[in-house]
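batch_manifest entry 22 of 60
target: Tail specific protease domain-containing protein
source organism: Hymenobacter caeli
requested by: lab member K.T.
priority: normal
notes from requester: please return tokens only, no post-processing; we will run our own comparison against the previous entry in this batch. if the run fails, retry once and flag.
--- input ---
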Amino acid sequence: MTLFWWRRGGVGLGLVWLAACQPQPTAQHPALARVVPRAQVLADLTLFQRVKEAAHAGIYKYRTRAQMDSAFAAARAQATDSMTVTDVYRLVVRVTDFEGSLHNDTFLPAAVRAEMRAAPAFFPYPVKLIAGQLVLNAARAPVPLGAAIASINGIPARRLVRELGRYYTTDGLNTTGKTVGLAANFPEYYRLEYGPAAAFAVRYTLPTGPDTLTRTLPAVPYRAYQQAFDTRHSKPFDNAFFAGAPRKYTFRLLPGRPAAVLTVNTFDIGEEGTAGHKRYEAFLDSCFGLLRRSPAITDLLVDVRANGGGDDNNDMLTFSYLAPAPFRENKGSTVGFRRVPYRRYLSFEKDTAERAAAVREKEDELRTDFAVGPDGQPHQTAQSNPVFQPRANRFRGRLYLLISPRVASAGSMFAAMVRGRTAAVVIGEETMGGYYGHTGHGELEYTLPNTGIRTSFYWVDLQQDVPRRARQPFGRGVLPDYLVAQSRADFLANRDPQRACALWLLAAKAAGAR
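--- output ---
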């Protein structure tokens, strides 16, 4: 089973969803301009609801059945006879986001997305949310680097952040994680939500003064935006959030300090028993063996800020070198079905043996790892949820953990274990992955037949083996002890205030211990 997650693409109940202007069918854009009859829209939305109710165990994790029923009904109420596939996509996205699982994803048909991306209709430069402000993240642009955007085409920045954030799902009620999606995909989200634009009137203020200025930027094809994103100003600071770090994990001693830094940028290393997992285990054993033989090293800083998840059981393996007592991965987990439902709509190019093999694999896993409980639902068995023992050479000194909104899935599960089961000092920003649990393990993807929209989710609802904490509300990510984020000055200088805070705390603790 895998916990890896990477994004390829909350609705208020009673909210009126505005339909974007409809493009006229053209020979150049047949997929993008295709109008879907209302009856077909309703059929797809009904199937979408039935699939989620039957297959997604976490559908009512953060919302009640009545709330979800209302969200699905609100989507159906927007159906008309003049909707394109992208119009329907917006309805599905809103329900999906409202449900609240970072493993939820919604995909346009490939032909629709290709036509959309080819047209010069996108905002040309990357942006980033810094200290609550939407700022331009390009050094070479008509609008200066770090300019705080007040509005685009008359839409206030706060509304842009709220409405476009729906396209990037997070666990529960978390909002910090949405800033990761906005930083990477703002132009695509804007195009999906508000339709194509030939130009963008940007109202903004400069870091050096209060005056509001305006500049109109011409729209570009998506590939031009991607080039701008690849050369964004913040790349030295946040490249590991989006492109993967040069090294998946590193360890080093801090010169002149009684401290070491373990950085784990991903758990996408290989599942238990693979060569990658064994190499990682040998790496950890070497690092913590060195710490055990070096009593002068009293402090360990663990940095997982770029960790968006990975393979079993790399998160539990890592925690075993920090854990003060035995632990499990989960308090328990449940599945919403005994046999994979609506299998004819599973996303496969053809109804072949590949589909049957995928279904068989999932149902074999159900029989092996789950047993039907008194409530009629499959629950994880004790055999598939083993007790992990702390390693003999586990670290016993002062522990510090760096977290960020990018931390998700197995990454946030690890962070939650450190937060809940050790005395670690946690520094940074709230993770997008939940503290108390998430829906993970094994992806299911369905295609809605009339629109070709694909919806995917993971199918096991997990309650992580962490204690209740008064300062950890349900529905939120792992919360830090020290909330530290970049200021606009930090952003402009590409400074790392979280690491600076951790080093300051290390020094202060070391001085106090002398």
